Amino acid sequence: MTIESLRADIVEVGRRMYARGYTASNDGNISVRVGEDRLLMTPKSVCKGFMTPDMMCVTDLAGKKIQGDRDPSSEMLMHLEVYRQRPDVKAVVHAHPPTATGFAVAGIPLDRAVLAEVLTTLGSIPLAEYATPSTAELPDAVRKYIKAHDGMLLANHGALTVGGDLFSAYYKMETIEHFAKISLVARMLGGENLISRDEVMRLQELRGTYGIKAPAPICLDPEAPGQSAQVVVAGAGQDDATCQTVQAPAGTGSMRLVPDLIDAHRRASGDGRRVAGDEAEIRLTYRELSALIEDAIKSLR
Ligand SMILES: [Zn+2]
Question: How far is the CA of 50 from the centre of ligand 1 (A)?
Answer without folding.
Answer: 18
